[in-house]
Amino acid sequence: MADLEIKDLVVEYSSGGYAVRPIDGLSLSAATGELVVVLGPSGSGKTTLLSCLAGILSPTCGSIHVAGSDVTQLQGPALADYRRSTVGIVFQAFNLIPSLTALENVEVPLTLAGVSRKEARARATELLHQVGLSDRLSHRPGEMSGGQQQRVAIARALVHDPPLVIADEPTAHLDYIQVESILSLVREIAKPGRLVVVATHDERMIPLADRVIDLSPKVRIASRPPERVVLAAGEALFHQGDAGDLIYVVEEGEVAIVRVRSDHSEELLTTVGVGEHFGELAPLLGLRRTATARAHTVAVVTGYTIVDFRKEAASDPRLARMFAAAGYAEPNGSAGPSKKRAAKRSVKASAARRGKTAKTVVPARGVKTAARRRPR
User: Fold this and answer.
1) pLDDT tens sequence across 93-149
2) 8 A C-beta contact, residue 168 and residue 199
3) Can you give the residue range of the structural domain that contains 75?
């Protein structure tokens, strides 16, 4: 068995009354001596994963084995011992005690573990020497640079010589000069007998890594033929939390956009009719789907990549502004749809909107309604 093995990990929690699943079915393995870099934008589940590895957060399902022990099954004293002796944590904001010196900050976890003051001081001094801070032992956090504070935090994480060290965005608060030394130090502490897992959005760490886990949704931007999908009433096109690389236009029928609440009921956000589009933010911004799209009636939709939808939207000033704001401005010379086709779609969209104002949409059974909002 690998020194770290994660199988089918799922983490779901409630945020603002909605069900959020930042990690859905993650599996990976790594061996001692490796530096594993977990990449992804904010909200992709990086810190959530580290919290599970640290035994701070319990996953919804799945398993995490560290050195043969299933962390998800640990409780009470066994869990406390795991947190103290098996895993060392380097926090993004350092989390040093402002009133204590660098030496005292590193001594604290040893003292709390019952180590004598003499032994704790000797161990802390040794570690601060290893991270290059022999001349900063008596300095408090406010008297040190960000890079020096991060070195103290790394030394503190190593006090019990843990086989697993996790670091959350270790370069986030550092300038480019300080980043170099911290990157070198992180690479150095990943050695036989110790596995290091780093969560970051800093791609400068990729060349140093033995293994890279990218939590970003995979979006295919290149042009490809439009995908026409026929949906039966009640059939889902995509679900909340799915990765998405297509923007959809309704050709026939209606599509309901619903969001799953934490109690697994559904809230109706809006319905999308003929000539209207939905699902643009996931491919534009590299996000997961923030709602579920389900056919309200029998419906036909066509999915376009960012490139192709941009061409389709070239004649619509509102859509063109949306793409420009998102950094996908229409390139000079690219061809949009014919004026006749664009005019026809505009007429259909206007008719659909006029029709919606004169009728009430009845949500599916068990679905709650909310104010109309732009689907995502």
Assistant:
1) 899 999 999 999 999 999 999 999 999 999 999 999 999 999 999 999 999 999 999
2) yes
3) 4-214
- CA count, 13 A, side-chain hemisphere, 142: 4
Instruction: Evaluate the CA torsion angle 209, 210, 212, 213 in order and state its sign.
Output: negative
CB 169 within 8 A of CB 200: yes
Helix (H, G, I), strand (E, B) or coil at 200: strand
Q: Structural domain tally of the chain? A: 2
Average pLDDT, the chain: 83
Contact yes or no for 156/110 (Cβ under 8 A) = no
pLDDT per residue as tens digits for the range 315-332: 666 666 655 655 555 444
CATH of the domain at 284: 2.60.120.10
Indicate if 231 and 125 belong to the same structural domain.
no
- Which of 183, 214, 245 is where one domain is finished? 214
pLDDT at 259: 93
Q: Which two tokens stand for residue 361?
A: 């949409």
Q: What is the pTM of this model?
A: 0.71
pLDDT in tens, 287-315: 888 899 999 999 999 999 988 888 877 76
Q: Which of 48, 56, 50, 66 is nearest to 11 (CA)?
A: 48
pLDDT > 50? residue 46: yes
Q: What are the angstrom distances between the C-alpha of 50 and each of 12, 36, 167? A: 15, 12, 8
Q: Which residues of 298-325 are buried (b: 16+ CB within 10 A; e: fewer)?
A: ebbbbbbbbebbbbbbbbbeebbebbee
